[in-house]
Amino acid sequence: MLADGLMATGENIAACPEKNIEFFTPAGPENPAYRDDPTQPVAEDRIEDLPLRGKKPKKGEADTRTFDKSAFLYDSEADVYHCPMGKTLERRSERSKSERYLYRIAKSECTECPLRAKCFKNCRNQYGRRIENGKHERAKQAHATKMQTERSRKKYARRAAVTERPFALIKRGFGVREFLVRGLDKVRAEWTLLCIAHNLHRLLSLSRPQARASVP
């Protein structure tokens, strides 16, 4: 299944293997946090490419963004996180009702860290960096790791050719962003007309001389 990013919820990711569904979603930009040995720091020349949280500053403004959770790599076997410097965040507590877990790094590890300013908006923070995760974190991390592979990126790239172009034409070219009728039968009829219009548009495009010359 090739789905958009909104479908990449923990529940969906965890449920797909149970139904023998191979699930693919957008991989996003290459994340240098995914490295062979997470106990070692991210390469110095890739630090600036790590994902950040917060709004990108306007020209002339200071960049106060901090490392996003995805800059920390989760080790499902050891049940720990590794920060961009390779340090370990261990599980400290559990919120049973929300099924969320808190991971924190030792204060001493953060005090002299050269990347401290990218972990805390307030550099006077007296605690180590912390991360929260939910019950589907292992599945989400495994999925994110899979989507960073070349195979998965190529697989997902097929979605653009299969679905994006027709929907883009219908929404932008035809200006149709919602159905004008109500009821399943009426909506199905309207959708059929839109598909016919799309196919005629495509046929007309292919019938032009320059289009015919480019078709193998």
Automatic annotation (TrEMBL):
It comes from Rhodopirellula sallentina SM41. Residues 26-62 are annotated as: Disordered. This is ISPsy6, transposase. Residues 83-204 form the Transposase DDE domain. It comes from the Bacteria. Residues 33-52 have a biased composition (Basic and acidic residues).
